[in-house]
Amino acid sequence: MPADLTEVSTEALMAEIQRRLDCTKKPEKRIILIGPPGCGKGTQSPRIKNEHCLCHLATGDMLRAAVAAKTPLGLEAKKAMESGALVSDEIVIGLIEEATQQAECAKGFILDGFPRTVVQAKKLDEMLAKRGQAIDRVLNFVVPDSLLVERVVGRWVHPSSGRSYHVKFAPPKVAGVDDVTGEPLMQRKDDNAETLKARLGAFHDQTTPVIQHYAAKVVALKADRPQDEVAQAIASALNK
Questions:
Q1: Active site members
Q2: Alpha-helix runs per DSSP H in the chain
Q3: DSSP state, 186?
Q4: What share of the chain is helix, strand, coil (3-state, %, to 5)?
Q5: Is the pLDDT of residue 2 over 60?
Q6: Where are the domains of the chain?
Q7: DSSP state, 105?
Q8: pLDDT at position 106, please?
Q9: CATH of 28-154+191-238, one of 3.40.190.290, 3.40.50.300, 3.40.50.1220, 3.30.365.10
């Protein structure tokens, strides 16, 4: 059923039409974001998405949505999780393949949270190669481990948009609420020092080889710099 646009202002409709026209002129891009917890991916990904007309694919969110929607892949994932097994790489690749065929992803995607291993990276490459596509850039958010605890513990997010704030480094205009919608912010349950140490260990063990796998396409970003400087470095990397 078509959406009811009677309550949408003419200005808003025209702005959306212009945005879509502008997007048709953008080159396709397929980007992977790699970085430890608290590295700033959540802050920069909405900027990249809007600037380059890409869809943002976070595999954890995709899995939860597929399970909730009871899709065939979601049912397979639910069965694996209920049995205590890990969700297979094939299921995750299947979710990514389905998502990237949607209109929102026509100009490409930002992949966040996958691949975590070289095996996953190779399977992703194979899936894309069948469509005559490949990963264009891998943005490696480099932050010294010593800075990450403070970043993570003070982080708050707007769940529906993914906008990220920090009580010290990037506070919202009004404490506890999103700048754009005024909706409440939340803190993720795993945003604490103990969990971070375990996640950092897994990240360095598993994900560093992924960076080596994509070596020719990797751009290392000094992600401990101010947000605008990081954004400028990303723009430079993606406009080459």
A1: 41, 116, 155, 188, 199
A2: 10-24, 41-52, 59-69, 72-82, 89-99, 118-129, 145-153, 193-213, 227-238
A3: B
A4: 50, 15, 35
A5: no
A6: 28-154+191-238
A7: G
A8: 92
A9: 3.40.50.300
Cβ neighbors of 2 (< 8 A, separation 6 or more) are none
pLDDT in tens, 60-76: 888 888 888 888 998 88
Distance of alpha carbon 163 from alpha carbon 165, whole angstroms? 7
- Taken as a whole, the chain contains a residue count of 240
- Render pLDDT for 180-234 as a digit per residue (tens, 0 to 9): 999 999 988 777 778 877 878 888 888 889 999 999 999 999 999 999 999 999 9
For residue 184, what pLDDT is reported? 95
pTM, two decimals, is 0.77
Quote the tokens at residue 43: 């802050």
Strand bridging mode 55-58 / 155-157:
unpaired
144-148 average pLDDT score: 83
